[in-house]
């Protein structure tokens, strides 16, 4: 039983059937988190032929997180085969079991990240560019009423896209339940997805091009926005 406060930490889980178009986010709640294919003995259950009944454990001890292989379970850690029975893991560590991908996140991104959006309407060839500063530990909403970036589109019915900043390799997007027919690169977006530069989202009457780079970390994000607008801002494009 946990007798201390566990730091905020998550696993992003991607399985071959869905790829990054459907990402599961699991918040770690225990000092020992068991991962495997068998229900009842694992906190994280992944049904895939590559997974053993109990494959991995993530352990929190001495103010650090460690990955432990159970028995001789095979796992690749940041692109290399993991030989040791256990190793320390940090924010952004990628664990792969065949085509199952687990990304460890120790809280939100520790840097400010810039998200570039090019927005087209379906009857225009000229995009409207926006540059959004995603601050540490903040999410950004694009869409209907109440969002940071408002799209003037009745077809949204008040729906929205939510971008969550866990860093350049873990930028997430999720749509609200009010919007139907959203596509990410021609595939339906019905759950949380992981974004990469070059992605394109079709949202009602708008097409949104996505770009962000690890090099686009902001030393002074306030340079993008007026000082009194930096914590929460709203842009209303006329499209």
Give an account of the 3D structure:
With 239 residues, the chain is mainly beta. Strands 2-1-11-10-7-8 form a six-stranded antiparallel β-sheet, with no helix packed on it.
Distance between the termini: 54 Å
* Strand arrangement, major sheet: 2-1-11-10-7-8
How helical, in percent, are the residues? under 10%
- Oligomer state equals single chain
Largest β sheet strand count, sense and barrel closure:
6 strands, antiparallel
Low-confidence stretches: 214-239
| Integer-rounded radius of gyration | 20 Å
User: What proportion strand?
Assistant: 35-45%
- Give the CA-based shape: elongated
Q: Which structural class is indicated by helix and strand composition? A: mainly beta
Mean pLDDT reading: 77
Overall number of strands: 22
Q: Helices and strands, in N-to-C order?
A: EEEEEEEEEEEEEEEEEEEEEE
Number of helices: 0
Task: Give a brief description.
The protein has 239 residues and is mainly beta.
Can you give keywords for this protein?
41% strand, disordered C terminus, single chain, 239 residues, mainly beta, six-stranded antiparallel β-sheet
Q: Secondary-structure blueprint of this entry?
A:
Elements: E1 10-14, E2 24-27, E3 32-36, E4 44-45, E5 56-61, E6 64-69, E7 76-77, E8 80-81, E9 86-89, E10 94-97, E11 100-105, E12 113-121, E13 128-134, E14 139-143, E15 149-150, E16 160-165, E17 171-175, E18 183-184, E19 187-188, E20 193-195, E21 200-203, E22 206-211
Parallel strand pairs: 3-4, 14-15
Antiparallel strand pairs: 1-2, 1-11, 3-5, 5-6, 6-9, 7-8, 7-10, 10-11, 12-13, 12-22, 14-16, 16-17, 17-20, 18-19, 18-21, 21-22
């Amino acid at each position: 039983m946990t007798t201390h406060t566990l730091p905020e930490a998550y696993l992003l889980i991607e399985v071959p059937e869905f790829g990054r178009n459907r990402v599961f986010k699991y918040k770690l709640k225990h000092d020992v988190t068991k991962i495997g294919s068998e229900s009842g003995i694992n906190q994280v259950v992944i049904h895939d032929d590559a997974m053993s009944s109990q494959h991995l454990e993530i352990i929190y001890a001495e103010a650090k997180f460690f990955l432990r292989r159970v028995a001789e379970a095979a796992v690749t850690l940041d692109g290399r085969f993991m030989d040791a029975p256990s190793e320390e893991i940090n924010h952004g560590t990628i664990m792969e079991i065949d085509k199952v991908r687990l990304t460890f996140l120790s809280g939100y991104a520790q840097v400010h990240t810039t998200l570039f959006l090019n927005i087209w309407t379906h009857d225009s060839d000229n995009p409207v560019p926006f540059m959004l500063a995603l601050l540490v530990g903040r999410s950004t909403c694009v869409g209907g009423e109440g969002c940071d970036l408002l799209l003037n589109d009745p077809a949204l019915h008040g729906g929205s896209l939510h971008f969550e900043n866990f860093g350049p390799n873990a930028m997430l997007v999720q749509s609200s339940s009010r919007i139907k027919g959203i596509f990410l690169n021609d595939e339906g977006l019905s759950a949380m997805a992981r974004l990469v530069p070059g992605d394109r989202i079709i949202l009602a009457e708008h097409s949104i091009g996505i770009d962000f780079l690890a090099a686009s970390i902001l030393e002074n994000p306030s340079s993008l926005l007026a000082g009194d607008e930096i914590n929460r801002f709203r842009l209303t494009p006329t499209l």
